[in-house]
TrEMBL record:
Gene3D superfamilies, alphabetized: Aldolase class I (3.20.20.70)
Domain of life: Bacteria
InterPro entries on file: Aldolase_TIM, BKACE
Pfam families: BKACE
Organism name: Seohaeicola nanhaiensis
Coiled coil start-end: none
Protein name, as recorded: 3-keto-5-aminohexanoate cleavage protein
Amino acid sequence: MIVQACLNGARPADFHAALPLTAEAMARDAVAALSEGAAELHIHPRDREGKESLAAVSETVRLVRQACPGTFIGVSTGAWIENDVQRTRQAIAGWTDLPDYASVNLSEDDAPAVIDLLAKIGVGIEAGLATLDDVERFAALEIRNRVLRVLIEVGEPDTDAALALGMAMLHDLESAGIRRPVLFHGFNGTIWPFVHRAAELGLSTRIGLEDGRKLPDGSLARDNADMVRAAVAITRAARQTG
């Protein structure tokens, strides 16, 4: 059971004053998040104009790894980043400084090919599932029990509905015989209910400005480290009572 720090995602620059958009800023934020108890990192590298870019992965991973040696570093392969199947594949194949893992959204048409490419170049796979259909598609893949882990990420804004969907996805994964580690997280208004539920279930979770910007009491977080501190406190309390 770990807390992963998701530092920036696809958020625009005006989402939060402390959103890290350069490789240098991501490296600084990574150090701060780890100091508050995050176990690993998930980042969305950006180009010099601040736009998400798979071509920026190598430089960003290199700088973050220099700042945080020995820490697992993951990136996104979201289809929207390059918005072209061939550019996405070419960018991934051209990585020189490899992340430890990369998230692949099973809702995207080219997900199986991206998974195969990542496996071929030696990058771990975090299988991103947002719906029950995603679970079914993932369960049909030969590699389903060889991925690094499963990422259950629910975008449904209603908390009760989001948690119900997340639990149904866990049930379907178990029914399909998939026995991989699970990271369980929400988005915007559901982030803290998901952190709490993950702690109750003994699952890993993630927190950071990619997923939201408020603390459990509803106040605006100062930065990623502020959010990590709160999430780690929740998971530690669950361990002590469990």
